[in-house]
Amino acid sequence: MSKTSVMSSFFSPVPPAAKAVPSRLANINAKQKTLTSVFYGGFGLIVLLVVWWLLTVPFTAPNSLVAHFAPVPSLQALFALLGGADNMWLHIGVSLKRVAVALILALAVGVPLGLALGRSQTLNATLSPAFQFLRMVSPLSWMPIAVIAFGIGDRPIYFLLAFAAVWPIMLSTMAGVRAINPRWQALGKSLAASASETFWQITVPAITGHVLTGVRLAIGVLWIVLVPCEMLGVTAGLGYFILDTRDRLDYPALMATIVLIGILGFLLDGFFRSICQLRKTA
């Protein structure tokens, strides 16, 4: 065999089958990690269910008030509510609409503020103390002022929810602007890119991941603040329904609504977490 043929065979490209082996191994490892996380997560939920049962069944009388909050009657009430009892889907839709509107408002305010604060050190030094002060004030403490300013209905709820959600979005956007590689901006200038081209081709792609992270954090805050906000004299929503079940002494339905709020919040967080992961792998 000639020296040329030996060298050519030595430096010949790797067969496709050999290239596919690492990718298959990576897919197998990813599936194993997913199954492991699902297993441990399911085990944790079972432990939580057992603790719930221990706190409400073994050490209480069958007809006591605590027994109404036990897993069996609560889950039975949950299935009944999901089946359409008490117009539960209407309450869910109203609550989700309020979250969506507040999130849009928070994005409309938080993203521009984050862009401005991230670009200007002077503006950041001027406004940061005021924003940090406002951020530390609980959104629920604004309830009386919101009702006085906006009246009874959805408008004070939109204000309170947007006020709670704007801060993580603003801070995440500002962090994204500051994390932009200066070389990218220098490259844009060297290519004679206009301000709008620099913004849409460099700034927006660079901060998208940070904004999505801020949105995910904002969703968590929104979902926590939503229930007490819906106790401001409205006639629909999950928070209103909790008060309604309390007034009707329907304690299994009350506990079922609490469980439902946790399930919906878990699904919302999982949805935005998957979007963030898809953004990272894209």
Task: Provide a quick synopsis of the model.
This protein has 282 residues and is mainly α. The protein has helices spanning 3-10, 16-56, 71-82, 88-119, 121-135, 143-150, 154-178, 182-190, 195-229, 238-247, 251-281.
Explain what this protein looks like in three dimensions.
- The structure is a single chain.
- This protein is mainly α.
- It has helices at residues 3-10, 16-56, 71-82, 88-119, 121-135, 143-150, 154-178, 182-190, 195-229, 238-247, 251-281.
- Helix 4 (88-119) crosses helix 9 (195-229) and helix 9 (195-229) packs antiparallel against helix 11 (251-281).
- Mean pLDDT is 85; it is low at 1-12.
Give the number of DSSP strands.
0
Q: Give the topology string: H per helix, E per strand.
A: HHHHHHHHHHH
User: What's the pLDDT, averaged over the residues?
Assistant: 85
Span between termini: 46 Å
The major pleated sheet works out as: none
Class from secondary-structure proportions: mainly alpha
Roughly how many Å is the radius of gyration?
26 Å
Helix content: over 70%
Global outline: globular
Stretches where pLDDT falls below 50 for ≥5 residues? 1-12
**Helical stretch tally:** 11
What layout of secondary structure does this protein have?
Blueprint: H1 3-10, H2 16-56, H3 71-82, H4 88-119, H5 121-135, H6 143-150, H7 154-178, H8 182-190, H9 195-229, H10 238-247, H11 251-281
Helix pairs in contact: 3-11, 4-5, 4-7, 4-9, 4-10, 6-7, 7-9, 9-11, 10-11
Feature tags:
single chain, 282 residues, mainly alpha, 11 helices, 80% helix, globular, disordered N terminus
